[in-house]
Amino acid sequence: MAQTTILGRIGQLVRANVNSLLDSAEDPERMLDQLVRDFTNNIAEAEEAVAQTVGNLRLTEEDQREAQQAATEWGEKAAAAARKAKESSGADAVRFDDLAKVAIRRQMSYEAQVQTFGTQIAQQTALTEQLKDGLNKLRIKREELVQKRDELVSRAKMAAAQRQVQTAVREVSVMDPTSELNRFEERIRREEAMARGMAEVSASSLEDEFASLQDGENETEVEARLAGLKES
Hints:
Elements: H1 2-15, H2 18-24, H3 28-87, H4 90-174, H5 177-231
């Protein structure tokens, strides 16, 4: 039967080794999305199958009602013919008896149909309830699958972010940037020392020049005083 085949295929999908599929998938998130789509499509097929089963059940119920109505009508005709036969005599009584028998046979035929339809309705009702129950369970499973998909995708993204952070931390530990900073600081200290040395050199040159100038002025003063002594 198509309905049970569809539900059986969905059952296989539910029982599939999802972990194995995810382990072998290059993109687990895409795999989960595809799994949800497959589940949704199969549920749509199951819903159509259940709707068809319910429709067939309603047709059978309608056929049973029509057969029951026909049985009732033929029973009334049989009763009417029997009354006529009782009221008549001779050939008329025989004719009405024959009509009553025909009506009874028709009544019995429709009653048999009513019984057959009743058996079919009981079977179809049980199957319909089974399919409805299975369909509801599949819908719940799909919602669980969607929630699980969202949870796994979120956890996968968090794990990837954590792995990137840990990789960056490990690289920083292997290549300690403080050593580069230390070398840069040492270079700056040498530049600063060079600047101080140049400043000291410049200051020393200026002091020598001023000292030389002062010596020249002193010698001039000496000559001037000597000349004054000679004139006195």
